[in-house]
Each structure stands twice: as structure tokens, then as C-alpha cells.
Amino acid sequence: MARIDIRDHIAFDRKTVYETFRDHLKELQPYLPTIESIEVESYDRLDDTMVKIVNIWKASEGDIPAMASKFIKPEMLRWTDRATWFDDQHICNWDMEVGFLKEAISCSGTTRYIEKGNGTEVHIEGNLRVDASKIPGVPRLVAGKVSDVVEGFVVKMITPNLKEVNRGCEKHLSK
Fold it and tell me: With contact defined as beta carbons under 8 Å apart, do 91 and 124 qualify?
């Protein structure tokens, strides 16, 4: 299991940042060059302080190296983000499901929106687990090692992308 731990600052107040991520995430897509689309599948206000949202993300196909394009199909660039937002705490619990390897990859965590000076600290904590024994073609004998390597690689790859979403929020709010 690999740990995700990101602290980032957004130069806008907590209420605005929190509500932008909760209610207007789709509007950030134009500021995210590696994301082709964000679609809201469901939005359910459960009570005065809790909202459940399911978003479908699709990454841009433009960054796939030509050699890899034979193996990486468009459906592999989609994931489902299920989030429960707790308005009274400014916290979001989330989990992501990768469409093509949902049996092999699990990722979940919590994002906290914390007032810091003249802005908001966005603190993302989570766990990424890869079970390489459930990935077609990976021999069981090396599955544990492959899992560790893939987890480390994915966390290293997604960290700048998660921060880029925060930059997209700043650009959106600056307009």
C-alpha cells in the first residue's frame, strides 16, 4: 500500500474553495490540460450538512506515447470518483475506481479544507493499493514486488496532477 499525503495552498477563502470543489468541479476542466472531461453522474444532498457526489473523469488521450497507444485503450483513461462531503467539517471522504482494473486497484482517502491565513490549505490523505496478482499477465511469483513498484509510480505520477486541480481552482476563481 502506498500513502498519498499532499498539502497545498489555494489563495481563496475556505468556503469558496470547498464549495467550488463540491459543486463546480466540472467547471475546472478547461484549466486541466490532462483531463478531457468531468461528468457529474449523481449529486445527492442527504441533509443540511452532507452531500454524496459521483463524478466520472476522463483523461486526455493526447499524452499517451505512440508505442503505448496499442495497449492503452480509451476506456482505460476513465475513473469514477465517489465522494461524501461533510459541510460542517469542510471534509470530503472519497474513493476512486479505475474502470478497467477495479479488482486490482483501490484508492481512497480524505480531503480537508483548512483555513490558513488569507487562503485555504487543501490536505489530501489517502491510500493506494495495487494487487498485481489481479492484473492479467503478471506472474504470481513477482506480483508483490510489481504491486509495490506500481503503487510508488502511481503516487509519484498523481501527486502533481492533484496539485494541478488546485491550480485549476485558483484560475477558475480568479476569473
Answer: no
Residue 30: C-alpha distances to residues 26, 120, 159 (Å): 9, 22, 19
> What CATH number is attached to the domain comprising 62?
3.30.530.20
The residue assigned the cell 466540472 is: 26
Q: Specify the pLDDT at position 73.
A: 61
Is the model's pTM score more than 0.85?
yes
- From residue 154, alpha-carbon distances to 100, 121, 127 in Å are 15, 23, 11
Write the DSSP symbol of residue 141. G
For Cα atoms 113, 117, 121, give the angle at the middle one, nearest 5 degrees.
25
Cell numbers describing residue 74: 480509451
State the DSSP string of 8-68: EEESS-HHHHHHHHHH-GGGGGGG-TTEEEEEEEEEEE-SSSEEEEEEEEEE-GGGS-TTG
Q: Which residues span the domain enclosing 46?
A: 2-174
